[in-house]
Design goal:
- The structure is a single chain.
- With about 120 residues, the protein is an all-alpha fold.
- About 80% of the residues lie in helices and about 0% in strands.
- The chain has helices at about 5-20, 25-30, 40-65, 70-90, 95-115.
- It is globular, with a radius of gyration of 15 Å.
Length: about 120
């Protein structure tokens, strides 16, 4: 059983649900929260969409059969994380936030890709 992929899927679902419930968890590290810590409704909508996408992918990583189906779910996770790294890397105005967010997204992509090789 691909334990590492399943655990990463569960972690993805947990974090995704958390950012849907509390968008500031993603907005603050990205430098997109207001000075008071609040999040503009337009940003909340985008974060909710990211959270929903990642919840679906993470759930698939947890439950699809090992083999081709799991590799497709992992490929979706890796592609999403790499796209996030590129888009946040190009779009965030704060250099420190950009480096942090790109590092986390790229690191998560590497972990999920590596999990495809783990038993």
């Amino acid at each position: 059983m691909p334990v590492m992929s399943r655990v990463l899927g569960a972690a993805t679902v947990a974090y995704s649900a958390a950012i849907i419930a509390r968008p500031a968890l993603l907005a603050k590290p990205c430098g997109m929260a207001r000075p008071d810590g609040g999040v503009d409704p337009r940003i909340r909508t985008l974060i909710g969409a990211i959270g929903a996408r990642d919840t679906a992918i993470g759930a698939a990583m947890m439950v699809v059969p090992a083999g081709r189906a799991l590799h497709v779910a992992l490929a979706a996770r890796v592609a999403s994380d790499l796209a996030d790294a590129v888009m946040f890397g190009l779009g965030l105005p704060d250099r420190g936030a950009r480096a942090k967010v790109v590092g986390v997204a790229a690191g998560w992509a590497v972990l999920c890709a590596a999990s495809a090789l783990a038993p």
